[in-house]
Write a structure and sequence with these properties.
Blueprint (H helix, E strand, L loop, with lengths): L1 H14 L7 E7 L6 H18 L9 E8 L7 E7 L4 E7 L4 E3 L10 E5 L11 E8 L5 H12 L3
Parallel strand pairs: 1-2
Antiparallel strand pairs: 2-7, 3-4, 5-6, 6-7
Helix pairs in contact: 1-2
Length: about 160
């Protein structure tokens, strides 16, 4: 991981000579909930080690925000409309609109996490992405993090 991140940083420097990065938002996919602590203890320090290997960044403090993203969960969100007919009462479910954020009630009580519906479903039920913040070095507020991720990840 350290070598891969170092390669990415060197490539960025090649195309942005003389510029310094001081903040990185790292989105990591493919991690189960049981691996969060292992990622926090291994990959977060590896990103920092890659940063420290590059001479151009010596003396610059990195503000690293490390977020796990996952679509491998069973959480779904629906809007519902009450539709009455002459003979019976029906509840019709619809997908929530892209950009919908859920960050209370069903989220972790002590860590920062949220669900973002970033796209419209072409068919069936849309699956929101779950974002779990392992490190918030940029000290983003929840709203700022929602907006940053939503602006980067929303496809309608």
């Amino acid at each position: 991981m350290t070598d891969q991140v170092e390669d990415c940083l060197r490539n960025w420097l090649q195309y942005n000579p003389g510029k310094i990065i001081n903040s990185i938002l790292f989105l990591r996919d493919g991690v189960s909930e049981g691996q969060y602590d292992a990622i926090r203890c291994s990959e977060v320090p590896n990103v920092m080690a890659a940063w420290n290997r590059i001479a151009e960044f010596k003396g610059v403090d990195l503000k690293l925000t490390f977020v796990i993203t996952s679509k491998r969960h069973d959480t779904r969100f629906y809007m519902h409309k009450n539709v009455s007919t002459s003979s019976k009462f029906l509840v019709k479910h619809q997908n929530v609109k892209p950009g919908c954020v859920v960050d209370t009630h069903i989220t972790h009580p002590t860590y920062t996490d949220f669900f973002l519906q970033s796209h419209a479903a072409l068919n069936g039920t849309a699956r929101p992405c779950h974002y779990f913040v392992l490190r918030n070095g940029m000290q983003l507020t929840a709203d700022a993090l929602h907006k940053l991720v939503s602006d980067a990840m929303t496809y309608v």
